[in-house]
Structures are given as C-alpha cells and as structure tokens.
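User: I want to check something. If I give you two sequences, will you return the structure for each one separately, not as a complex?

Assistant: Yes, each is folded on its own. Here is the first sequence with its structure:
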Amino acid sequence: MELTALRLLLLPLLLAAPLAAAETVLGAYIFHRHGDRTTKSYKPVSLTALGAEQVFASGTYYRNRYVASDAQTRIQGIAPDVAVLSQLSVTSPVDDVLQHSAQVFLQGLYPPAGAASVQTLANGSRTEPPLGGYVYVPVNAVSTAASSGGSENSEWLQGGSGCANAVVSSNNYFASREYLDTLASTKDFYHGLLPVVNSTFSDSQATFKNAYTIFDYVHVSTIHNQTIPAADLLTNETLHQLQTRADQHEWGLAYNSSEPVRAIAGAVLAGQILQALNDTLRAPVASATAQRLTIQFGAYAAFMSFFGLANATAASPDFYGIVDYASNFVLELVTNATTPSSGALDPADASVRFLFVNGTVGDNNPPRVYPLFGRSDALIPWSDFAAEMGRFAIADTASWCRACGNSTGVCATALGNDGGDSGNSSAAGTSSTSHKGSGGMSRAVAGVVGAMVTLAVVLGLEALVLAVGGLRLVKKGNVAGKQASSPVGPSVTQA
C-alpha cells in the first residue's frame, strides 16, 4: 500500500516533466567511393556490374535512412519521391568510374516515382514520365585547376591533384627511412609474386614502389578472374601482406603530420563539407528549397587524407588503410531542440555526427559512429566542429593556390597575379589562409618558386616514367573493419 501511494504521489511530477525532444536530422553530407571496377593496369578503367550493384545498394540504403517518407531518421523537409533539385548537391570528378557510380547511386536514392510523378494538364489529361517516372538528378562534373579528369586511370596519387607542393611532399616519402627500409625488406616478397604478375609487371617493377598497383592488379583478379597464373602463391597470408603494404604505401603518400599540404585532398574536402553543412544550418528550417543533402563521389586518397587531418585514426587504427569499393562516410547535422516554424535554427542547438562504413553499406553492414579530432564524444557541437575543421580546411581557390605554391592559370587570377599594380604587395603575401605551411611571399618570388617547382615535378615524373614505366602510387581504400579479401572549388580527384 505504501508503494502504491508513492507511485500516486510521483505520477503528477512525471506527467509534468517535459519529454526529451526527438533528434531531428537537418541535413547530411555523404562522401562515397566508387564501386568495383576493372584494374588500373589496363586502360580504360570502367565500373563493373558488381560495382554498379554495390553503389545502387548504397543509394537504396540511404534512401531508407534519410529520404523515404517512412524513414526513421528522415532529413527534415526533404522530398521523398520526386527529387527537388535545390535540396540536393551531387558532384563527382570528371571520371567515368566515379560519374557512373554517382548516377547509379542516385537510382537507388530516388527510384522511379511511379504514380507520384504523374501530372494532370490543364485539359484534364494525365501524363506519365518515361521509365516509370524515372527521377532525373544531375551529377555535376568537377574539373578545375586543382584536378584533372580520369582519376581512375591515374596510377599516381597526386597525378591529378594539380597541387605542386603536394606533389613534392608526396615524393618526399620516397626518401623517407620507412619507405627505403620497407623497399629493401620486401624485395623477396614482391619478387616471389612474379609468376602471378609477370604478364603486367617486369622484374624491376615488382617492388614495394608499386605496392598499390600490384595489389590492385591481384585484388581485381581474385574478384573477376576464374583462372590466375600460379594462383597457389596467393595464400591468405600473401593477400594480407599485399593489402597491408599497399595501405602503408598509400598512407605515406596521402598524409604526413609534419607536411599538411600532402593531404591537400582531405583539406579541400573538409572545406567543402564545412561550407555545405553551414549552408544547410543557415537556411530556414521550413524552407522547401534549401539544400539538405550533399553527395560527393571521390577516390580513396581523399578518404585517407581526410582521416589523417581529422585524426580519425585516434578512434580506430583501421582508418590508416585503404577503404574498400563503395565505402562511404556521412556527416549528419542534427538537433535535439524544437525546430522553429520560421527562420533558421540557432547554431548553438546543432551538432554533427560522423559515421563510416567500410565496403557496401546495408542492414548487415551499417555505418558506425566514430569520434573525430581525437575526441571521446561522437556528437560534436556545431561550434566545436566548425573550429576543428577550420584548422585544416581549404575552402577557396586563393587559399588552395597559396598552400600549393601555384601561381599561374586560375591561381594567377585568384592571387591577383594576372596584371595590375606590380608594386603592391601580392595577395599571397597579405592574405591569410587556414592551411598551415603556406606563408606569404612576394609575387615575383611566388612566380619563380612556382615555376621551379613545376619544372622539378615534370622532370622528376619523366625520369620515373622512363625508369619504372609509370608511377603506381594511388589507390583506393579500406578502413574500419577491413575486408582483406577483397574529391568544388578545387576538387578532390585523387585516384
């Protein structure tokens, strides 16, 4: 009886207590790797049927997570059936594999709308779009001074970055003690694989220097080739060694804590993420046309560079590796506050969550939440997130040009070097940048340095091509939960 009386006394207090507001997803940024593709050793590289299936499954998963009318974590205000193009931003480098992956992903995100796409005309007749109400969402191709097309045909990590200082920094890896020691210690391992790869790689090319392209060649073969020469050599231990050495090689090229410019792909990506989420946060919550979902397709190098800069490796050592095909990460912009009926949400009420999935996402392989920036808390207040990203993000062309040491072409305009009063201080010397290591210099010095760097890079690359038959330094990855069997402004297009 006493317990019953206590419950009756507490009941009014429980009813009076306000219920915690359910979390609202205001927007999201998805960065996605392409699906399975053919080997880089033979051109052109193309998306396979398996790769299309992987990215379609991913698009379907995110439809069920963010877009469908019955999605449990539906992005507030996003159109569920027929896409409102102003709500979406979808970009990909000028590359067949990445462009095709983005297009197939969108087929899963917004499948044919059926009855929802039927329109009634003024005369009362009903019209149905072709292909069952196919939803046309454009994939905006990106190609600027910071990138070149065909990144999936490139065998070298910085081959398409256009960033002179990043090229020099990545090449510094080949003079590092880690690289030289590994090159020597793995000589017998790679030489022992010649019976498997000698149709494509010569004896001199079968070394750690080509760790990625050798891995890529073997990896693709194990997926698609029913017969492989000397297949008995490809034991689980050997395949694991190939993967591990490729991870080591590509990480060394993609990120170095003492040379931030090496991770230019991740810095640019960070700037794009910050700008997109900020645009969503500043838009009226009730707006039916505000950007809600940003999707970008890019290659594995951008994943690795961003993971290094954002210190994702503090959350899991798996982030050091190359992400698998169709891997992706998401940054969700969320709030637990009651959203206003008009105007924008107070930024103090918003937070960001980072999720990552290695390989094809699905109910059996859902994205997992990880903390960033070496923090322990996975849900980051917006102000903290913006400050942390701002430490390394590059969000405009001028900052990119200064960090890269580029001073011609687009950079001449961005830095004010395309004419005018040459007696004044140059933009490179007077403007600040969020990227470290890009200190100011006079316009004349910047031009000389840029020219010398470019000449050195060209001569260095030419020598390497003559000696090796093509640099083989870029690649795609696998992180958190690796499966061993197995880059807008300046754009992120590293292969």
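And separately, the second sequence with its own structure:
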Amino acid sequence: MKPFTVRTARLVLDQPVAADVDDIARSCSDPLFERFMTIPWPYTRADAVSFVDEYVTAGWADDREWTWAIREGGGAPLLGVIGVRLGTGMVGFWLGGEHRGRNIMPEALTAVVDAVFARTDLDAVRWECVIGNAASLRTAQKCGFTFTGAGPGQVPGRTGERSASWTGMLRRDDDRTPKGGWPAH
C-alpha cells in the first residue's frame, strides 16, 4: 500500500520521516513509555531511526500496518504517532508529553478509524492498553469504543509477556458516542 495522508480540521496524519527521528526519540524516552508501551527500553535514537526507516516503511509496503505521524498542519513538527495493524484491526498511539491534554488524540483516532472503515473490509477496530493507562482509556472511551474487559492483552510486551490490559472495540456500525461500562479512571 502506498502511504496516504489523513486530514482533520486541525491535524495532518502522514508518514513519519527522517526529520521526525529526534522528536520520536525524545518523546519515547518519557518514563511513562517504559511503564505503558511495548517499545524498546531505554529508547535510543537508533531505535527511532529503525522505526522510521524499517518498521513504518515495511508496514506500509506489506499493507500490514499503517503508521502516521500526527502533526498540526502539513510539514509541522511531529506531535505523536498513531497506527493500525490491519490483520487484527488493533490501533496504537502516543503523544509527546507537551502535547497531551489538548484533545489531539481523540481527533486523530477518529480520523484513523474512519480511514480504516473506508479503505478496508474490517468489521471492527480494536484497542488495548496496559491497565493503569488512563489517558489511553479516556481516548478510546471518547471515540465511542465499547469496553470489552480486562485481562491478558493481545499485544506482547517487551519480553514477550502478555500484559494485564484493558480492551475495547468499535464496530463498523456502532454509533460513536461514549458508552458506559468503562473502569473508573
């Protein structure tokens, strides 16, 4: 698949590029990432280079995973990253610390879900996060996902273990209003 750009009222989601490497490395060095993300730790600039040059590129080329940089306008600095694994419909996302709390991620996630449903035959988009990641939970809840439980996650952790995770799902025909039944956060 050739990478494509997704736009919202204020955001541009496009492919991460070499100019984003330092922002990715800096953001992914946040101690919250060690606790809640499956990325290598400690995260280095070399990890960011490999992510951009190999992981993202291969995911698009194989039509296996679509990964976007989140920006406020074309050519703007990277705010975070969002992606979807097409085999499972699993979404994953993060924002740099200085960009959190501005309702960026719900806007980006809604746009990605719309793109997935417009360009694939997937019946649902899935979400999971390590239990305790309240920001990720709030994002999924705001976007209309239904909470599906807590238990071992599908996404392997850094050492291959299945982390205790919260999970959710948004079906193609679900309404996008926030649903009840989510854990207190």
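Because they were folded independently, the notes below concern the second chain alone. The radius of gyration is 15 Å. DSSP finds five helices and eight strands in the chain.
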